[in-house]
Specification:
By secondary structure, the protein is an alpha+beta fold. The chain is 31% helix and 30% strand. The two termini are 50 Å apart.
C-alpha cells in the first residue's frame, strides 16, 4: 500500500492548533492575552523523533487556550469538522485530557527503506496528555469506531507499550496509536513508526534531543513562543529529490511569538562553517528611507550592496529557493520583475553595473498602481566617490543605448533625465501624405537631495518624492510599528505593505492565491510584513519576519 496519502486526517490534527492561532491572531489583542504564553519553549516530544528527521512542527500551548481568540465560532467549527468523519466529539473525547503540546514530525523519508516500492514517508503525531487514563480511553474508543467501520485491528505490546493498529480499508488511512508513559499519546501511519519512536526514547543517542545541531538551535528560541519548527535542511532537500550545488546551512529553527502589534516569526539557520554578514549592522533605519514615499508597496533598505552576491545571505536565498522550488532563478525573476525588466531594457547587469558601487546606505522601493501590472521604482543611494563614478557609468550605458541625458527642473529641483525620442504618425488627409510627431519618452531620472542620489523610473514618481517630502515611509506610523518589533542592530529591512501590494504579488506569484485561500482569516487581516536579519554568531544566521495586523 502506498502510504504517501495516509495519515492525512492526523496531519490536519497536528496542524489544527496552528491554523487556529493564525485564524485568531486578528482578534487576539481585543481580548485579554495575559495567559496565552507557552509553558515551555522546547517541544517535549522531540525525544520520540529521530535526529535524521526532515522536519518537526510543534504547538506549545493547549489549543483551547486560543479559544479566547475566537469570533463567530470559526475555531469550534474547525475542530468539530476535523473529527466529524471519525465519529469523535472533540469537546467530550479529546478536550478533557489534551495537554500543552501538539507535535507533528516527518520521522523518515521511507518507512521500509525499500526504494523499489516508492518513497513512503513516516508521520508521527504526538499529543501531550494531562490525564493518561482518559487518553487511553480515547485511543480505545477511536480504534473501536474504526473496527465498526470495517477495519481489522491488531494489538501488540512493544517494549512495555501497547500498540494498536488497523488493517485499513482502501478508502481509509492506515493508523497506529499508543499511549507512552504518563506524558504523550502517539499516532502514526504505520506501527513501524511507533516502534521507532519508542526506540528513540530508550536509546537517547538516536533522538533529536541528542543532536548537537538541535541543541544549538533550541538555545536560540525566545521564551514564551507559541509554536516552533525544526528543519534538517540536507534531508529536506533529499526529500524533494534535489542535489544542491552549494549547501551552506545544515538546519533551521523557527519560532512564533505574539507581539502587541502582531506576530513575530524568528528563524535561525545554523552551519558548521564560519560565515560573514554582507555589511556592518545598523543601529537605526537608514536615512535613505526619508525619500521613499509612504505610498510604497515594497521597500528594501540597508547598507553596502557591493558584496551582496557573495554574501552568506545570498547563499542562503539560493539554497532555500532551490530546496523549495528546485531553482531560485524563476522565483527571483517573478518577485523582482521590475528590476529584471530594467536589466533587459538597458542591457545592464545589476550586481556589476549598479550594486558594485553602492557601499553606503541604500533604499529600493516599488510603488504599485492598480491600472498597471508593472510598478514604478525608486532607488536611493548615499553619495560617495564610487557613486559619482557609478552615475557616469550609467550615463555611458544610456548613451550607448541611444538615450540622451537632458536637464529638467521639477519643483525648483534640478533633475537629470535619460530620454528617448520616438515618432508617432498623425491622422491627416491622404492627399497631403503621412504626418509625424516627435515624442520624448523618459526612461529614467536621477537627482541629488542632501547626501543622497535618487533614481526613479518616471517623472510622476520623481515629482511625488520632490513635492511630498513630509509624507515619507520612515515617518509612517505603520512602518514604525513594524520595524519596532525587529531587534537592533540589524542588516536593514524588507518591508511589504500587503494591502498595497496584494494585487501585484498575486499577478507575479500565482500560487500565492492558493495560500490566501488556505489562510484566509490571516491574509484578510494582514496589514504588512517586515523581514530583517540580525545576530552576531559567526556560525548562524538569525532573522525574523514580523506580521502586522489591521487591528494593531
Amino acid at each position: 500500500m502506498n502510504r504517501q496519502r495516509s495519515f492525512i486526517g492526523f496531519i490536519v490534527a497536528g496542524a489544527i492548533a496552528l491554523l487556529i492561532a493564525i485564524a485568531g491572531f486578528y482578534w487576539f489583542f481585543a481580548k485579554n492575552p495575559a495567559n496565552l504564553i507557552a509553558s515551555t519553549s522546547e517541544p517535549g516530544a522531540a525525544i520520540f523523533v529521530s535526529k535524521l528527521s526532515p522536519a518537526m512542527v510543534s504547538l506549545l500551548t493547549n489549543p483551547d487556550r486560543l479559544q479566547a481568540l475566537e469570533r463567530e465560532e470559526e475555531l469550534s467549527k474547525l475542530k468539530t469538522s476535523l473529527f466529524a468523519k471519525s465519529g469523535i466529539d472533540y469537546k467530550q473525547d479529546v478536550q478533557p485530557w489534551l495537554g500543552n503540546e501538539i507535535t507533528l514530525a516527518i520521522t523518515t523519508l521511507d518507512i521500509d527503506r525499500d526504494p523499489e516500492n516508492g518513497q513512503q514517508p513516516g508521520y508521527l503525531l504526538a499529543l501531550a496528555t494531562k490525564q493518561p487514563e482518559k487518553s487511553r480511553e480515547f485511543v480505545e474508543l477511536l480504534f473501536s469506531k474504526r473496527a465498526l467501520s470495517g477495519a481489522t485491528l491488531a494489538v501488540e505490546e512493544y517494549k512495555g507499550v501497547k500498540l494498536i493498529s488497523d488493517n485499513s480499508q482502501p478508502e481509509k488511512d492506515l493508523l497506529a496509536g499508543a499511549v507512552v508513559g504518563e506524558g504523550f499519546v502517539l499516532f502514526a501511519n504505520d506501527p513501524k513508526v511507533l516502534k521507532d519512536a519508542i526506540n528513540n526514547v530508550q536509546a537517547p543517542d538516536l533522538n533529536l534531543t541528542s543532536s548537537p545541531e538541535y541543541q544549538k538551535a533550541t538555545k536560540e528560541l525566545p521564551k514564551g513562543g507559541l509554536a516552533v519548527a525544526f528543519l534538517n535542511l540536507p534531508v529536506v532537500a533529499k526529500w524533494q529529490g534535489l542535489e544542491l550545488s552549494e549547501q551552506l546551512y545544515n538546519s533551521e529553527i523557527i519560532s512564533l511569538a505574539l507581539n502587541p502589534k502582531g506576530l513575530l516569526a524568528e528563524t535561525t539557520f545554523l552551519t558548521s562553517s564560519e560565515i560573514l554578514t554582507p555589511s556592518a549592522p545598523l543601529s537605526k533605519p537608514v536615512g535613505a528611507l526619508q525619500y521613499v514615499p509612504a505610498s510604497a508597496g515594497l521597500a528594501i533598505s540597508g547598507s553596502n550592496l557591493s558584496n551582496l552576491a557573495d554574501s552568506d545571505l545570498a547563499k542562503l536565498w539560493k539554497q532555500a529557493t532551490a530546496t523549495i522550488y528546485g531553482s531560485g532563478e524563476d522565483v527571483v525573476s517573478r518577485l523582482a520583475k521590475p528590476l529584471v525588466d530594467v536589466q533587459k531594457r538597458w542591457g545592464i547587469n545589476l550586481p556589476e553595473d549598479i550594486f558594485s558601487w553602492v557601499q553606503g546606505e541604500y533604499a529600493i522601493a516599488l510603488l504599485p498602481e492598480k491600472e498597471q501590472t508593472t510598478p514604478h521604482w525608486i532607488f536611493v543611494v548615499e553619495k560617495s566617490e564610487s557613486v559619482e563614478q557609478g552615475i557616469a557609468r550609467l550615463d555611458a550605458i544610456a548613451s550607448s543605448n541611444g538615450l540622451s541625458i537632458n536637464p529638467l527642473t521639477i519643483d525648483k529641483q534640478k533633475v537629470s533625465a535619460w530620454t528617448e525620442l520616438t515618432t508617432a504618425a498623425k491622422k491627416s488627409d491622404a492627399k497631403e501624405g503621412a504626418s509625424f510627431s516627435i515624442e520624448t519618452k523618459v526612461r529614467g531620472l536621477h537627482t541629488t537631495l542632501g547626501n543622497y542620489e535618487i533614481f526613479t523610473s518616471d517623472l510622476e514618481t520623481m515629482n511625488e518624492i520632490l513635492t511630498t517630502k513630509d509624507n515619507s515611509l520612515i515617518d509612517n506610523p505603520n512602518f514604525q510599528d513594524s520595524i519596532a518589533a525587529i531587534p537592533l542592530p540589524n542588516q536593514g529591512y524588507i518591508y511589504l505593505d500587503w494591502t498595497k501590494s496584494q494585487n501585484l504579488l498575486e499577478h507575479q506569484v500565482p500560487i500565492l492565491k492558493l495560500a490566501e485561500v488556505l489562510g484566509k482569516p490571516f491574509f484578510d487581516n494582514l496589514r504588512s510584513l517586515t523581514v530583517s536579519s540580525y545576530g552576531t554568531d559567526t556560525r548562524s544566521l538569525k532573522g525574523g519576519v514580523f506580521f502586522q495586523l489591521k487591528n494593531s
